[in-house]
């Protein structure tokens, strides 16, 4: 038995013919029985809970900080992000070897247990433990869900079905801030964590009796743990998590806790990069690698992975800095700023469904047109973001958001199926794991890179405001103080200059985002050329 090619439990139970032979899921449409229509909506619900968690916690951070008497509340976010990123390749390997069902159920349990611990936490240390556990589950749920959808749905139909999964997940971004505000205002912040427990329980009750059993290969893997352990990539799994963490930590602390030139930032970054390089060299010669290097030798596949990285960056980039725009320039409350982001969220929901439908209808290489259109729309929208100043009309703000959201939404459903199409069924688990790992990794870059651009722009122009105001805005102060309370604390003359500085810094970040999107356009061309060469 090899770890690379077991038939999955969902395939076995849902797509097996009456004579026991397996259907060809790559090209032929599948008849779907009642179990599919229990599994698929439940996977969507689980994805919604995970994305909702990511947006709901932000609204409660001030309340958590006051309740636990701590100023280190940022680690409530970081602990979850780190845990959800570093264990994704390992989760995919375990799901491939031991079956999708036990790994999905285990991650749902971890997500629920971590939520319960976080909600009951009496101290910051306890809440961080809960968030680490919750993050492991929260990172694994969408990954295993994508593997299950890939098992159940033939390749031509995957964009459509994954589009529905992504659209449901996007709804979590819309529901989270609203629900979080209601909970914080009318109950305890602890309920933003506890609300996940019944959702996790409902998912377990729906999935446990319906998902299939282990295949023969997976039963052998359990029975022969010694042989399975010998196929386990111990070196890769020992190198990847600490190397990733060594990069993520300074990315979250740089420019805030320590200067970017500090040895506390540079040293872990260098060590992390060296660790990833060492892992890449080792994986090239490893018999059973955690991340096979052949996944990166395919030009089209490499292009698609990088497109996904950029798209994930842009999602965070736009959401974070539009919030700064609404609060500091338009002088809105946090709740109103969240409402103003609705065109972005709704646009992503609608266009992820449309992108999935288009990806399913367009044959072969023609689906690349969806990617091309997506990056063009994002580049156009981000270029037009230069119009966003204190006088921008509501309609203008909404339309510009929809243009960028349309590009993001189109890509959400098409990238993973296009990537999977580059490889055999044996590689689906590993390429999906790398896809999710890079997307999670990109989320941190999507906050860090624009913060560098934003802070440097502020620092280079802050002298015009005078020392008393400038000292509050320099060295990251503009981001930390971005609120209507801050801007309205000045007289009209200074206030106009402060708002103008925010507009100037935001315009620089939009240009920066546009440059990455243009790189994405070049990668689409590389994908096309790689496909023709293949």
From TrEMBL:
Protein name: Major facilitator superfamily (MFS) profile domain-containing protein
GO molecular function: transmembrane transporter activity
Membrane topology recorded in Swiss-Prot or TrEMBL: Multi-pass membrane protein
Residue ranges of every copy of the Major facilitator superfamily (MFS) profile domain listed in the record: 39-532
Family that this chain belongs to: Belongs to the major facilitator superfamily.
Keywords, sorted A to Z: Glycoprotein, Membrane, Transmembrane, Transmembrane helix, Transport
Protein location: Membrane
Matching PROSITE patterns: MFS
Coiled-coil spans in chain: none
Pfam families: MFS_1
Residues spanning the membrane: 36-61, 73-95, 102-121, 161-179, 191-211, 265-282, 302-322, 342-362, 369-388, 394-416, 428-453, 508-529
Annotated region described as Disordered, given as residue ranges: 1-27
Presence of the UniProt keyword Transmembrane helix in the record: yes
GO cellular component annotations of the record: plasma membrane
């Amino acid at each position: 038995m090899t770890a690379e090619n077991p038939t999955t439990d969902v395939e076995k139970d849902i797509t097996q013919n009456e004579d026991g032979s397996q259907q060809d899921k790559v090209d032929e449409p599948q008849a779907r029985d009642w179990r599919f229509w229990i599994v698929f909506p439940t996977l969507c619900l689980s994805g919604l809970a995970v994305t909702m968690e990511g947006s709901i916690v932000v609204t409660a951070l001030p309340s958590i900080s006051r309740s636990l008497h701590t100023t280190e509340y940022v680690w409530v976010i970081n602990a979850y992000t780190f845990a959800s990123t570093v264990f994704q390749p390992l989760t995919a390997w375990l799901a491939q070897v031991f079956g999708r069902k036990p790994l999905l159920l285990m991650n749902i349990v971890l997500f629920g247990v971590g939520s319960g611990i976080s909600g009951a936490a009496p101290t910051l240390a306890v809440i961080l433990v809960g968030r680490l556990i919750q993050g492991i589950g929260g990172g694994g749920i969408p990954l295993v869900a994508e593997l299950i959808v890939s098992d159940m749905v033939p390749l031509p139909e995957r964009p459509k079905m994954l589009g529905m999964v992504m659209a449901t997940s996007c709804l979590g971004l819309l529901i989270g801030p609203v629900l979080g505000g209601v909970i914080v205002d009318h109950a305890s912040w602890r309920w933003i964590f506890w609300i996940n427990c019944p959702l996790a329980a409902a998912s377990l009750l729906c999935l446990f009796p319906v998902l299939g059993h282990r295949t023969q290969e997976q039963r052998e893997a359990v029975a022969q743990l010694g042989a399975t352990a010998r196929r386990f990539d111990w070196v890769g799994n020992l190198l990847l998590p600490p190397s990733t963490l060594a990069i993520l930590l300074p990315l979250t602390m740089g420019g805030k806790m320590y200067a970017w030139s500090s040895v506390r930032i540079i040293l872990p970054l260098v060590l992390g990069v060296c660790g990833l390089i060492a892992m890449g060299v080792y994986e090239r010669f490893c018999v059973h690698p955690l991340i096979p290097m052949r996944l990166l030798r395919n030009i089209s596949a490499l292009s698609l992975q990088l497109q996904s990285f950029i798209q994930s960056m842009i999602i965070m980039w736009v959401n974070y800095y539009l919030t700064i725009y609404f609060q500091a320039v338009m002088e809105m409350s946090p709740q109103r700023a969240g409402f103003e982001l609705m065109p972005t969220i709704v646009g992503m929901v609608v266009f992820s469904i449309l992108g999935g439908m288009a990806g399913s209808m367009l044959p072969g290489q023609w689906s690349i047109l969806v990617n091309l259109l997506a990056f063009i729309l994002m580049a156009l929208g981000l270029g037009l973001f230069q119009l966003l100043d204190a006088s921008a009309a509501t309609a203008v703000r909404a339309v510009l958001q929809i243009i960028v959201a349309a590009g993001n939404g189109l890509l959400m459903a098409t990238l993973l199926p296009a990537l999977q199409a580059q490889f055999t069924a044996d590689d689906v688990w590993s390429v999906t794991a790398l896809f999710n790992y890079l997307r999670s990794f990109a989320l941190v870059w999507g906050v860090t890179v624009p913060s560098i651009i934003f802070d440097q722009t502020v620092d280079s122009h802050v002298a015009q405001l005078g020392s008393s105001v400038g000292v509050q805005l320099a060295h990251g102060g503009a981001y930390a103080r971005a609120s209507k309370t801050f801007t309205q604390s000045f007289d009209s003359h200074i206030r106009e200059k402060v708002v103008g500085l925010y507009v100037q810094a935001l315009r620089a970040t939009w240009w920066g985002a546009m440059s990455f999107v243009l790189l994405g356009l070049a990668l689409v061309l590389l994908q096309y050329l790689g496909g023709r060469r293949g």
